[in-house]
Design a protein that fits this description.
single chain, alpha+beta, 8-stranded antiparallel β-sheet, 5-stranded antiparallel β-sheet, 2 helices, 15% helix
Length: 191
């Protein structure tokens, strides 16, 4: 199946305001926040570059209930909005922690070079687990080709989905702690 971009607002985002209770978000944090499993986030498979990215993360399997919940959101957005040719998760789900002083992730895109299996990231999803009152800074920004930058101060349970080709960043966290889930759904290369 080849994507038809003529009818698709390809470079827009799909925002789902908090539909998850704070209790569910807190339970995910309780289940997965463990300093012993957190590692410094890498920019590529082996590079830690703090000027580009400073945060900690761990990886969750794509057969977990958390991945199932995120999969529901991303497949619903795809059916309603994008209509991309998607197959499954591109990688494991990332449980990411941003803390002061100034953990951040500079402008980047999530699309990676196609793998030997001819499979690329197409849609990115971010679900915030922290309440907006729990952290300062840490806004998610999306940069659209129209030169419009949209800024989101995410609250617990907020979900945002966007094409993995869209440039985005997480601004520095100045106080508190911002915890989120991040994932990427993929499929065959765009044609």
């Amino acid at each position: 199946m080849s994507e038809d971009f003529s009818q698709t607002p390809i470079l827009e985002h799909y925002f789902i305001p908090s539909q998850m209770s704070k209790e569910i978000c807190d339970n995910i944090i309780k289940d997965f926040f463990d300093e012993g499993y957190l590692e410094k986030s890498l920019v590529s498979k082996s590079k830690f570059v703090p000027k580009i990215r400073s945060s900690s993360n761990r990886w969750l399997y794509t057969d977990s209930w958390v991945a199932g919940m995120l999969s529901h959101f991303i497949l619903s957005a795809n059916k309603s909005f994008y209509d991309f040719d998607l197959e499954y998760w591109h990688d494991q789900i990332q449980f990411t922690v941003y803390q002061p002083p100034k953990d951040h992730y500079n402008w980047h895109i999530d699309v990676m070079h196609k793998s030997q299996t001819n499979f690329i990231r197409k849609l990115s999803i971010v679900m915030c687990l922290s309440s907006e009152e729990d952290y300062g800074g840490g806004e998610l920004q999306l940069f659209h080709p129209t030169k419009k930058c949209k800024t989101f101060k995410l609250d617990a349970g907020d979900v945002i989905i966007f094409p993995s080709i869209v440039s985005h960043r997480v601004k520095p966290v100045t106080w508190g702690r911002r915890i989120s889930l991040v994932g990427w759904y993929g499929g065959p290369p765009f044609r």
